Amino acid sequence: SLSRVYVTRQIPPEGLKILKESGQVQFELWDSDDVPVPRKELLQKVKGVDGLLCVLTEKIDKELLDAAGPNLKVISTMSVGFDHLSLEELKNRGIRVGYTPEVLTDAVAELTVALLLTTSRRLIEATHEAKTGGWGTWRTLWLCGYELANSTVGIFGLGRIGVAIAERLAPFKVKKFIYTDVAPRPELAKQINAEYVSMDELTKRSDFLAMCCALTPETKEICNKNFFSKMKKTSIFINTSRGGVVNQDDLYEALSTGQIAGAGLDVTVPEPLPTSHPLFTLKNCVILPHIASASYTTRNAMSALAANNLLLGLRDEPMIKELQL
Ligand code: GLV
Ligand code: GLV
User: I want to staple 76 with a disulfide (CB 3.0 to 4.6 A). Which of 13, 98, 170, 300 is the partner?
Assistant: First the structure.
């Protein structure tokens, strides 16, 4: 008999096609991509399902798992991040979890480089000046920024994404890659010739500092006043991981007082960041609406991987990408 599944978003077509053609599931869908399923509706829809395909806007916590009931055996999230999942609860209930690493590494690395250059070379300010009459003449120090050539790039959390970012930055003649993590990652580090350093050293030495870690209790608001105070006044901070790793009040302070030169953020707390947020008033802060993996190719690959993980999990087979709880 068919497994019952709820899909919390109108996901890209490749994944939906896989579910439809599987002959394995009967699924219901929140048929919109513009607004997330309301929590109340979600709690009703999950009642009795065997599987759930979700995105990162859905909190998969005790309340939801209680509402779903004992049939639920697979959660498949269309994301590499899993901070929206209560892993302890899932583990205790023996629920398996699929996610979508690797397929998004190229897209995230590309976007991170784009955001870094946009921030360091002040591109948003520059286009604004050009179209609003600020372009009086060619000026010697106007809109000057910071270059990658001969710089030290620091990576906080060296995983596949950090490596992919470094590989793309190396041709810009970066002088040195350094990284910090809970422990050295020699296999990954040697691919990019990166030196393992303490967090303290990372903050002090980096001209560009990219956050590439997962959000966990250990990394929550790790970028705080103390962290920013050690960074160079000429340094650029980039975050394409999770907004929760940053204390945004402390970041605002660091940017507005010139403690650091600029910040490029693809992720914030909350999301969306209210348009009245003080960070939006700063010229040296570039804020994107969480689009790092947003290429057509990658989002379809994530959709397909999430669908396949779900189907495999429901058949009690190993998933293509499964979290070890
Ligand atoms: C995006 O942020 C993801 O986790 O895939
Ligand atoms: C996750 O860390 C990835 O690189 O896909």
Answer: 98
